[in-house]
Specification:
Elements (H helix, E strand, L loop, with lengths): L10 H15 L4 E6 L5 E7 L6 E6 H7 L3 H38 L3 E2 L6 E2 L5 E4 L2 E4 L3 H6 L3
Antiparallel strand pairs: 1-2, 2-3, 4-5, 6-7
The structure holds zinc ion (ZN).
The site of zinc ion (ZN) has 7 residues, from strand 7.
């Protein structure tokens, strides 16, 4: 995962807090970045396994309040949960895309027609002639051309 980055000492307990909240919400989520910027804010990057993650900017005031104030804590939790559920959605979409892509490979061309030089798909009728593969529909054309 990400390389640990330096952070100022004050950020330590806040970083721990965010990590704990994150772990509660989604045990396999990871806090990959915790930066003391922009001013008065922290930039937090959380990622699910196999994802680059997305940054979330949290107000320093809110995070500090979250350590002592249950309402602020709930707000931070909600922000993290929203971010996580967006990431889960995009991960699910990505997986669906990958599944479609791998199916496309299976259904993709199985060869190139020796006559029209277009791809031959698995559903096409094919003829094999002198160890060459062609669309069945292309064969009469080849015969017309003498060959
Ligand atoms: Zn063909």
């Amino acid at each position: 995962m990400g390389t640990p980055r330096p952070f100022d000492r004050d950020a330590g307990p806040l970083q721990v807090l965010v990590r704990e909240l994150l772990h509660d919400l989604q045990p396999d989520a990871d806090l990959v970045e915790f930066l003391d910027s922009p001013p008065e804010h922290y930039t937090v990057r959380i990622a699910l396994p196999g994802q680059l993650g997305k940054t979330l900017i949290l107000s320093r005031r809110l995070l500090e309040a979250a350590r002592v104030n249950p309402v602020a804590l709930r707000s931070v939790r909600l922000l993290l949960r929203t971010e996580l559920s967006q990431q889960q959605t995009s991960r699910a979409l990505e997986r669906a895309r990958e599944a479609r892509a791998s199916r496309a490979v299976i259904e993709g061309p199985i060869g190139i027609c020796d006559i029209c030089e277009k791809p031959i798909r698995i559903h096409d009728r094919v003829v094999v002639r002198q160890a060459r593969v062609a669309h069945a529909r292309c064969l009469p054309r080849a015969l017309d051309a003498g060959g």
